[in-house]
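Annotators were shown the component list below and the corresponding predicted structure, then asked to write short factual statements about the assembly.
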Amino acid sequence: MSIALRLTELTKTFEVGKRLIGPPKGRVRAVQPVTLDVTEGETLGIVGESGCGKSTLARMLVGLLPPSSGTIEIDGAPLDNADPAIFGRKIQYVFQDTISSLNPRKTIRQIMEAPLRHLHKMDAAARKARISEIFEAVNLREEFLDRYPHEFSGGQAQRIGIARALAADARILVLDEPVSALDVSIQAQVLNLLARLKAEFGLTYLFISHDLAVVEAVSDRVAVLYFGAVVEVGPADRVFSAPRHPYTKLLADSAPVVGRALAAPEGRETELPDPMNPPEGCAFRARCPNATAVCATAAPPLERQSDGVQVACYNPL
Amino acid sequence: MAGYILKRLISAIPVLLGISIIVFVIMALIPGDPATAILGSYATPENVERLNRDLGLDKGMVQRYFIWLGNMLTGDFGRSFALNRPVIDEVLERFNATLVLAGTSFILCSLVGVAAGVVSASRQYGLADKAITFVVLLGISIPSFFLGMMMILIFAVNLRMFPVSGMWPIYGDRDLAALISHLTLPALALAVVATGVIARLARSAMLEVLRQDFIRTARAKGVHERSVIWRHALRAAMVSIIPVLGIQAGFVLSGAVYIEIVFQWPGVGRMLVDAILKRDILLVQGGVVFVAACYVMFNIAVDVAQTLLDPRIRS
Amino acid sequence: MRAFFALLARNRLALVGLIVMGCVMILALITPILPLADPDVTDTSQRFQRPFTEGALLGTDHLGRDLLSRLLWGTRLSLAVGIAAAVIAATLGAAIGIVAGFYGGRTDNVIMRGVDMLMAFPYILLALAIVAALGPGLMNALIAVAAVNIPFFARNIRGVTVGIANKEFVDAARLSGMGDLRIILTEILPNVIPVIVIAMSTTVGWMILETAGLSFLGLGSQPPKADLGSMLGEARSALITNPHTSVVPGVMILIIVMAVNLLGDGVREALDPRLRSGALTRPMAATLVRRKGPVPEASDDALLALRGLETQFHVKSRIYRAVGGVDLQVRPGECLGLIGESGSGKSVTALSIMGLVASPPGVITGGAVHYKGRDLIGARYEDLRRLRGNEIAYIFQDPLATLHPLYSVGDQLAEAITCHHNVSKAEARARAVNLLKSVRIPNAEDRANSYPHELSGGMRQRVGIAMALANDPEVIIADEPTTALDVTVQAQILSLLDDLRRERGLAIVFITHDFGVVAQLCDRVAVMYAGRIVEEGPTDAILNAPAHPYAARLMACVPELGEGRRELAAIPGLPPAVNDLPDGCAFAPRCDKAQPACRTGEIALARSSDVRRVRCIDPEPIPEEAAG
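Structure shown to annotators:
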């Protein structure tokens, strides 16, 4: 299996309180150095709570946001200029907010034609044929093509979003919370469609979500993000059942599960640290039941354990 | 808070400089030889000489600007040729009169406008709302100068309730009663348009706020409806009303120009129009810069009020 | 386009404006071919003729010129100048605004500083300065009026552009390989144009007034040519002796500007999606009640009992049956879960209890809500208010939106107490701090002075819970209180709620879409679909063995943690629109067990065991141990 996507020491720092002249008032490290490999044909799940940097990471992957440092390689070729038009042919993005990702004043046909026309310079006949092919694949009727986005339900709109991403003919799709705006009965339809498309077109997925159960159900491997850094990477079937990082365990214990008694999983009721003023050492130590003196010295590196799981913790479980 | 005010005052400096540059550049647009263009019929040899000295016309644009700016900072706005007195004296005297007129109008239109908007919104589609909406529409559609003329015709000429024009009686005491009777008609005429605009905005701001979730929370708590409207909703609506009050103050100040002409009010607006028609350019220039600077200061006060109201800006 | 005119025509006032404006425009256009006297020929022997005199329908002015002719020619001029100024200002302002808003960053910063600079002038000063420099004249007045209005357009359009440029469809366009210019022209501009049109239609009247104003001051059109403003200016000296010379042009300006404003309002209403959807209507203090048919009697000893509750939304001619006859009861100390997907009517049901459904468009059209035997639906507003927050309290979903942004949380808590109890300020404050302690907020004394935006999501929801507890209510209705929170915070809040309800013996109605949450917190659960309860009973029993096909299939769709990678079950199709419900069972079109009998008539919520009820003619069999 070859590496489809490789991130090396990728970071993003935002400047807060920009001024006309002079330095900004502060900097926020939204993504700490992230190093990840995604194998061709796999689904890598990325979970994390709000503010953990998962959307920033996703936007860097598709070239919508230039990284502050680090590199992105697709199929071995580095992409260092953040130009969505170059990224677009190799890696595509499916948005969370289905309605906001479709221009309300364009027909579905116009939306679908844009990547074919601008990324692949297809002529009218080729575009028509390609659109038919894709619509067939995502189970949408061609009569939808002349309608406007507001005429569709959330689930249909998300299918259109997926169809648009497919039209670019990229091998890698970044799915940013693709089902969190949908009801469960519709969510399952979309997830199953994604699984079928992956098999049919040989795609590689980065599946970003805050919903542990969904990520577990669709992923081969899962990376857990906390405060902009990857704290654990491991096979999907064991990340939540046998967590190695205390934060992963906290997440798994917090998820409401039928048949499990309700208990506050955390003694100290603390929340995320202040990103403007990040703590020394491990960002999780204030919430961590196993924190020791070493945790305050430096952020723990992501290290491969004997069982192949990567954990960023001095005292893994 | 003191720190914030200081910061706002410091940030006003570039704006004031910008204003002076804009005025300077506009005045530099005057075609032809500036001395004769400015002086026109007042162009006696000594006037030309004095103007050349005042403007430093032998020097370059940039240098001239800094000379002018430096003079203004020391309170020297040049001399009016038509009136043959220092510009600053004339402007200060006239600005006082404008302040009385525009200030009264502004207070009037803020209070009436906001109240009308709140009543209108809280009785949406009711009789009061429809009546207010209609009056407001009339208000924002009528030219203030025409309204002023009609008021003179009806209340001053026909009903003889108020004097026709001026700020003070020609004979008799210059007391408060005299001022109020002279002020009533022009202040009302001036307030009408701004009242309409403010009432409209206050209505839509209130409607916007009344649909917010925190209003539902207040109702779910069992807060009296009166308090929901006048405490919860109005306070939140003020966040979008106050900036408009700042803008409307500019419109009141602008409208004062017409009203001062119609009512022969001895204010700065009438002075400016006279000065333009007489091509008394230094007076125009000084008057515009002075009034604009005052307006900038007023807007800082508005910003400070906004900050006091909204804790989200403070942090 | 046709839809736009249809909308415009529906607004009667706008139609009046359109007709008046149309007439004025036509008159202005055909003025040159009308048999009118020359507007500029003076005849001092005929000066100040009254209106309706022979040969001068509207009389003559101080130089004996025909007023009607001057009026029409003046209207022509005023309209042309006003509209031209509006078009110029809108075009340039929009261009500046779009560039600033789209590129953002430094470009935006520099442009907007310049705009702020221009807006720092009271507008007329700038106009006067421009006219002073260029000299009086109609063309110069037009330039001045257009110039001073550019900043207003620029700022307005910039704001809108920023909003659109941040929309995800712009990102999508970039990923489709589109460049900046193409994105501005095909993605941004089509969405900004309605705003430009609205801004223009609401400012044309203002521009006409302003140009007329400059002419009135003698700085616009120069004699002998006259627009409406200069006619009025010239007539001013004869105001007292010959008022008709002032009234004629003045009234004309009034008519034109009023018609333009009416039309502008209509255009705005037709184009602004929020106004169009009626979103800017004010919800009343309590939901409108228009019950048809008999009011159900209070039947059992439940603390809170809903009987056949029906709540609808009346939007124009459409009727949405959000809640279509709901029966529920809550006993003291019990936690009832109300579960359903979006649009199932669960929140509307909850809000209907205390009359908090926004009205318009909400109307309670039937049924009753009995609290301790009293019907709340027909109750007087004051009676309802006394119960709100005092005996039945709410916790809402998004605590940032549901707390007042401008009051400290301590003040908001204290108010919840003082509006039901006559206590001193200090006393209310002390109680508020205690409430914050009881929901385990650290440093409660300090936190009471915080504003909602200074707290994290979890802390805000604790404040929301404290507010609900303020008056020791009997029932708390929690409407998706943890949906906006992260899982780790959600777990904290749920366990807090569970502790509180056991300590205080609270009855809770817990609305959610999450089966996991229901399982952990609720004694009983009711499943809603398309505005009705389809199944109800003890939580364990229903989760283990759902009887209604919808409940069963919905649960199968939910991925559960710990089951590994798998194919998920899905329900084909979509829930029905509640303004177009099918006859019979609303789930029948998606149900694989549906039979002809499912599609006709009313299907009752029938007992399936002692404690369970299900609305299905062919329910799944219930094993013995799940009978409840």
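Statements collected:
1. Chain A has one domain: 3-311.
2. Chain A has a mean pLDDT of 88.
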